Fold this sequence. Notes:
Elements: H1 3-24, H2 31-47, H3 56-77, H4 84-110, H5 116-122, E1 141-148, E2 151-157, E3 173-180, E4 192-197, E5 201-205, E6 215-223, E7 236-239, E8 246-247
Antiparallel strand pairs: 1-2, 2-5, 3-4, 3-6, 6-7, 7-8
Helix pairs in contact: 2-3, 3-4
Amino acid sequence: MSASYFANGVRTLWENAKGFLMGANFIPSREASLVAWSNNLSSLISATPTAFGLTAAQATAYATLNTAFDTAYNTIKNNTTRSPANIIAKNQAKKNLIASARQLAGVIQKYPAITNAQRSALGLTVPNMPSPIPPPSAAPALEIGIVTGYSVNVKLHDSASGSKRGKPAGVSGASVFSFVGAVAPSDISAWKFEGNTSKTTVQVAFPNTTAAGATVWLTAFWFNPRKQSGPACAPVSTNLQGGSVSLAA
Length: 249
């Protein structure tokens, strides 16, 4: 297992864990804040329950729990009515409220028509939206390696960094193309698609019916995780049974 693969795995686990924690902790921990938060939630879902994927009955049931907690909380805030029995009643009302709030939040978050603006207005977790990775802006550097029979070893690397190894940031892989002939065509549709690869070293095998000493050309372009491609590199040629390597003019 490569270090980069392990690092990506750790990063994914952390993002998932972070999302879970954020989703679990949307309810305020301070009771004064919980009262204000719950009053807002109850008011909004009672006004238009279906806009949040809820039913009127669900909104009404929550409003009852919200009133019970609000009343119990204000009861124990008053020194004249603060008693062990009332504190127990407040704690039970709070427990009932939070359980219902979490249940309703789960329904709302899964409602297909819910928007992030609505989530924010309700005081629910707004999911982090990762910035899309743009298409690669630079072409790969392509080098011809060992030529054995009808097989050509091709090496790709980041042309912008000057490094001889690895893909640029945001690149998932490369599309490789070949052509047999004296002059490389300018139209990519005239090339043969050899396949996509996530590796930077690939073997391109030409048909064994290709003429001895034929000139072959290779080119490639990077693509991002959404399979959006960047520019193709300048075609590079070699001969299947020896010969010089050149760049297209």
